[in-house]
Amino acid sequence: MSDYILEMVNITKEFPGVKALDNVTFKVKKGEIHALVGENGAGKSTLMKVLSGVYPTGTYTGDIVLKGQTQHFQNIKESEHAGIAIIYQELALVKQMSVGENIFLGNEFQERGIIDWDQSYIEAKKYLDEVRLDINPATKILHLGIGQQQLVEIAKAISKKANLLILDEPTAALTEHETDNLLNLLVELKAKGVTCIYISHKLNEVFRICDTVTILRDGKTIGTYPAQELNEDRVISLMVGRELTQRFPRKPHTPGDVVLEVKNWTVYNPEIPDKKILSNVNFTARKGEILGIAGLMGAGRTELAMSLFGAYAGKRTGEMFLEGKPVDVTSPRDAINQGLCYLSEDRKQYGLVLMMDIKNNISMANLSSLCTNNIINSNEEVRAAERYTNDLKIKTPSIEQKTGNLSGGNQQKVVLGKWLMASPKVLILDEPTRGIDVGAKFEIYNIMNSLVDQGVSIIMISSELPEILGMSDRVIVMHEGKFNGELPWEEATQEKVIFYATGGQ
Amino acid sequence: MASNTQTNLPINPTNNTPSIKKILVSSLKQNIRQYTMLIALIGIWVFFGIISDGIFVSARNLSNLFLQAVTIAILATSMVLVMVAGHIDLSVGSLAGFLGAVAAVLMVKVGLGTIPTIILTMLVGLIVGIWHGYWVAYRGVPAFIVTLASMMGFKGAIIGVTKGATIAPMLPAFKAIGQGYLPKLFLPHASFNDTSAIISVIFILLFIIFDWRKRQSRIKYGFTVLPLSLQLIRMVVICIAMAAVLSIMVTYMGIPYAILLLIGLVVLFSFITEKTTFGRYVYAIGGNKEAARLSGINIRKTNMTIFMIMGVMTAIAGMVFTARLNAATTAAGNLFELDAIAAAIIGGTSTMGGEGTVVGAIIGALVTSSLDNGMSLMDWDITYQYIVKGLVLLLAVWVDIATRKKSA
Amino acid sequence: MASNTQTNLPINPTNNTPSIKKILVSSLKQNIRQYTMLIALIGIWVFFGIISDGIFVSARNLSNLFLQAVTIAILATSMVLVMVAGHIDLSVGSLAGFLGAVAAVLMVKVGLGTIPTIILTMLVGLIVGIWHGYWVAYRGVPAFIVTLASMMGFKGAIIGVTKGATIAPMLPAFKAIGQGYLPKLFLPHASFNDTSAIISVIFILLFIIFDWRKRQSRIKYGFTVLPLSLQLIRMVVICIAMAAVLSIMVTYMGIPYAILLLIGLVVLFSFITEKTTFGRYVYAIGGNKEAARLSGINIRKTNMTIFMIMGVMTAIAGMVFTARLNAATTAAGNLFELDAIAAAIIGGTSTMGGEGTVVGAIIGALVTSSLDNGMSLMDWDITYQYIVKGLVLLLAVWVDIATRKKSA
Amino acid sequence: GCGSSGDKKAEAPKEKKIVIGLSLPTQREERWVRDRDAMVAEAKKLGIDLEVQISDNDSAKQESQAENLITKGVQVLIVAPNDSKAAANIVEKAHAAKIPVISYDRLILGTDVDLYMSFDNEKVGELQGKWLTDHVKKGNLIVLSGDPGDNNATLFKKGAMQIIQPLVDKGDLKIVTDQPCKDWQPSEAMKHAEDALTANHNDIQGVLAPNDNTAGGVIQALAAQGLAGKVPITGQDSDLAAAQRIVQGTQGMTIFKDTRELGKAAIDAAVKMAKGEKPDANNKVNNGKMDVPSILLPPVAVDKSNIDKVLIDSGYLKKEDVYKK
Ligand SMILES: Nc1ncnc2c1ncn2[C@@H]1O[C@H](COP(=O)(O)OP(=O)(O)OP(=O)(O)O)[C@@H](O)[C@H]1O
Ligand SMILES: Nc1ncnc2c1ncn2[C@@H]1O[C@H](COP(=O)(O)OP(=O)(O)OP(=O)(O)O)[C@@H](O)[C@H]1O
Ligand SMILES: [Mg+2]
Ligand SMILES: [Mg+2]
């Protein structure tokens, strides 16, 4: 009994129309790293928000027992006082404020409300060193990439010196290298007696560090198992309720003509006009192939995609040919009209209008196809939205649902639906499966395959090496704004990709 | 107006018999904000109707009330566009006053006829709209600032244009825009206005035809539709409501031109917001500007268009106001911007952008005008008039927020 | 004020010798908005100074100018808090008028003394602030609505309180708040104000001490500091600037109490925004409400506090205004809200929340007041005065946006 | 204390132009535009410098502007106060700089004013009330007043009610609506009139409108009921539009205050004061602090019977404008 630091018993939590948690029981032993896994929308994040007081007592039923004591958290502060620290799936940082200010937000070094800034920045630097993020704590968050922001979040959680640390998909935006760092850090913390709940869709990480695994499906507990009794396939079948024979549905593709050719592509920083972010990039993408682009965080992959798509603020030089014709893309509209589409890495900020429904989001990039004289045929719009909702198996009560109410995976599918509707020739996918469960990933891979079969050329930017290796027909590796190597899939191995990505020649 | 409730019905082609209750409940939820305000409006009418011994709800007073609301309603209609896109326009009050004065100067001092005056004034409105649009869309200055600057500027400009004097009178044709009623054509001695009656019948028939065609088209696409009986009940209820409102005017002096103009503008703007790509872009920009940009929407062009429309609509509102007073005065338009913004907000437009409907804004304008009218009719003290208006605004929005939270 | 530039210096404990140029450039960039506006302010002064043959920059006129700006400056100071948290307060104008009238009624009609009047009026302001805070923080109604409702309500209430008549005169002690100068204590016949001179010297000394202690503390913690020579140059420049501004007042009639009050409030609010947890929470809420909530910040309490402060500050502004006019009029406070908001925005406060400084708002208030003063001094036509003010507001914000884009 | 301003002048006699400061409340009403024009013309004629400031109905702004005028070194300050009590400050500040102040059109209260020149505002209200009660002996009245935040509106109404109230108390007249018009807006007046007509089934026998602009709004409401010209209605300011309406019979009366005379007299008096002479006051008016030497001009009630004589023969309005169809 007493070796459980946390017992959550018979937790039920309902949202209007959705029973997110249904009698969930979840127990964590002291000093272990406990993985919580499940498909998108299984209720993992909700369970943790119940625990941390985001959803206060009274909005759910069931009991929370922490170190033998029943707890009724009214708010986040109370759970922090009880020794719980949590990193939420959505980044919770104030962009206009500095890294140091964010780390101690809500827990300032203060005396009677007056903050000691010098002390704050010194301490902040310590925690940044701990997560191996080498930046000035006075830097504003808005100057950081999404991966760096994730590390700041982790530093913030560690700074709370909690004895129960919860991480909700912390590595979704991290590279292999940073992930390694983080996992090592968790193991160190475990050695210091910190208990950890770890939520991730990356099962290899789960098996690397976790002692126990609890599986949720559709808001119910499927079971809790010691990690050594499980393997990845078993977890997956428990998660999705059926066997998945393979993770990456590779299909043989026969690449056709060159669709996209980029020559001497150089992109400058919008704020420092003489600083190159990309220099002299050359590549081609062929009809009916998946071109994978790998690289470490900050290698410039997103800038490459954004600049090709006409959405990057900085100066660009170089040439771009679509189906052999030189094209000048100066805005996303131009790009879409030419058949070049881009799915961004941050669906909430750049992908969706959260207060609009699924239907309107899907039709947004290609409204003209539903129009005569700029007047929308709403019946056609419904029909199109229905088609993509069914094709992509978007889980929703209706296509009138606001996208803000969908789970992350389903949101990603809505964005994908939007770009499919724009019928692209070249589709650039930037981290297409970020924060998406294995089942949904598999579906997305299948969609990619069928697109390629239809002759679409896919460029896939990803920080997940297995995905790059598992799906690409050809892999390009970027390092500091340059193309540092190209490998056909048969020759691409984890070691080679990392070698190039870290600057090896 | 009714088209709005229909589009939002849940659709489920795979299953052709969803429960009727579910459809009704869901349609109610989707439009809860408008229904709340509609109920509030009816509540205000009933209240003043009772304490005024029925005078408030007499055909004559309601007809007055609509006319008193019309300037703000016109401004609120286009303010919805501006606010949905995430902007605000603080200049509409002084600009409407200025443009009303421009119209008066063109007519009285320059001696232009009605049509040239209207065209030139709308042109000036358009130019101001382009000026606003330029700064907002192409120079990235927040609309709050751009229009605050204009608000100041036109407060000064109106003095320059009128030289401080009231300019009157306008030509009869122009005056009719604000004060005239549709003339009786065939039955000059009937106790009702025949032309207005005919137009009212046309309105109702048009509604029936559109509603029916919509149903047919949905059936053709294989979408769920209401069972025929329910659809007919719904149609009859809406027709009766339309007939009731129109008959108020028909039995008084007829439909005023200004109301006809307003109905036209509301239908037009409802259509623009719901059925056109431009309208959709406005909502997308207000909802998430970055996502809209990356979806290929030309944000600058859309913003520019919004402000151009706002400029022209402000010109129309200014002219209706001048026509109604049959004079242009230097204080005209004072604080109209706040009334128009309040009307839009009461009608469900979000101050953060992304949400709002034209029909809602009209209901909002009617709510505030009804309060003004009712309290003035009852000769309440000005102190309480202000306070009651403030409290009603606050409570209306709060009730709405509370019910939305419950039913979301 | 200067403390502000210092906190934002980049800190690099691992490396103790960053290039001086880098430090300067970076500090310039961090505070670019304030520098732009400061330059604009100086530009306006130089311009009017030249065309008015120096009258504009005479000690007497500048002293007047500061007094003319003081009410708006006080309002703008707390408006920064409200706007940084992502709200807005449209009621400050009519509320300041109302509270000024309350003070006048308490003093003239009820016959209270100066201190009880001040305390009671601030209490009323606090209660109104709590009312606003309740609706915004605990009922989730947007501040725009809550304060728009109050704006209407207090427009009415001021008529109720004053019965439409001007209430005057105030007691001499009360009047001094708005009109009085620090008395000469030791040298009654000197051509300058000795008390003010002493206070000025104290201000300058305090600045030197704080700046030095800050340097020492940073050295102790091993942070980068400016080389001693540069630090001294910086200190001397700031001291000269302070001395110049203060000597304007010292050589005229002395430092007015109202300015002393304003300086006190500005220092207090700068401190609150930069050094206290409450201040940080305000920025966090405005920057990312969700993140603030997930960081365990009590958003409701913070919002409530913001509006309570705003209420009290509005009471202070209302009293200073009444003291300055030595009368409470029913039209008092009209459109102050827009002036205060404009001052905050010109001074770099974002309309979207999350950004803004108190010092910036004061500069903004000085910019608009200088324009008013200068144009009135030059006897420009009222039409052009409005237009110029509008244009300058627009251009100021645009230049600022343009420069920020380049250097961010 | 205006005598002391003479000493300085002695050093630079004659060659320095006389500078007079003028602070007006608004340019949003025709009558104040006329005031300004009259004074500017007179100043030009006399070859003196006149510095004009318009405060746009804002007492605080007026004070700032007066400060600015003082800063610029005017020798006499003519103030038409926005607010009679609030302007006391201006006088004190001017006196501190040894500048005499003429209170123009509206009397500045509670302080030492050097000279008051005006048409009596309460008298204006009385004339309106008198005319109305002469034309309406029995029945329902609509009583409108100016902006609720304007002290002068209160004064006009007070004067009018002095005449009307006794008849109301007697039961002959009944006030069915008593509303202010925000910002003196005609649209407000129109709305109140519409609502009152509705509430009383058009049973209205007279309207007290505080000025010509609001009267214009009321007349629009009356016209919609076919009552224009049938209901006596007052006005004030002698706007051209009002004169036209009087000729057409839709407005009953207006008040003529020959502001050209007043303006001219004010400049003449100011010049005298600048030279250290005493202007010839014809009256004394108490302002709560002292008996202020005053030059009072009479306001005149204008209706159809005397409009030609008062407004047109005096050259204030042009016959072809007034009778323009
Ligand atoms: N605020 C909310 N309102 C309504 N429904 C919600 C809300 N938050 C979550 N849900 C629903 O609750 C269910 C569980 O969501 P939750 O975010 O916990 O899933 P998850 O397991 O964390 O998924 P993912 O792996 O995508 O992060 C989903 O169906 C989701 O749509
Ligand atoms: N807002 C910014 N200001 C300055 N530099 C930036 C900004 N955003 C990105 N950079 C820089 O641009 C380069 C490329 O960044 P980016 O994060 O887009 O690369 P990426 O390969 O797409 O990595 P990720 O895995 O994060 O998607 C990096 O050097 C980064 O520091
Ligand atoms: Mg989750
Ligand atoms: Mg990227």
TrEMBL record, chain A:
Location, primary (coarse class): membrane
Keywords: ATP-binding, Cell membrane, Membrane, Nucleotide-binding, Repeat, Sugar transport, Translocase, Transport
Gene3D superfamilies: P-loop containing nucleotide triphosphate hydrolases
Protein topology in the membrane: Peripheral membrane protein
A GO cellular component entry from the record: plasma membrane
Boundaries of every ABC transporter domain copy: 6-243, 260-505
SUPFAM superfamilies for this protein: P-loop containing nucleoside triphosphate hydrolases
UniProt subcellular location: Cell inner membrane; Cell membrane
A Pfam match: ABC_tran
The keyword Transport is assigned to this record: yes
Superkingdom per UniProt: Bacteria
GO molecular function, one term: ATP binding
Entry-linked NCBIfam families: PRK13549.1
Name used for this protein in its record: Abc transporter
Organism of derivation: Lucifera butyrica
Automatic annotation (TrEMBL), chains B, C:
Organism: Lucifera butyrica
Function: Part of the binding-protein-dependent transport system for D-xylose. Probably responsible for the translocation of the substrate across the membrane.
Alphabetized InterPro entries for the sequence: ABC_transp_permease (IPR001851)
Entry annotated with the keyword Ribonucleoprotein: no
Pfam family, one: BPD_transp_2
Subcellular location: Cell membrane
Membrane-spanning segments: 35-59, 65-85, 92-112, 118-136, 143-162, 195-212, 232-249, 255-273, 304-325, 382-402
Cellular-component GO terms for this entry: plasma membrane
Protein name (record): Xylose transport system permease protein XylH
Keyword field: Cell inner membrane, Cell membrane, Membrane, Sugar transport, Transmembrane, Transmembrane helix, Transport
Main location: membrane
An example molecular function term from Gene Ontology annotations: transmembrane transporter activity
Membrane topology field: Multi-pass membrane protein
tRNA-binding recorded as keyword: no
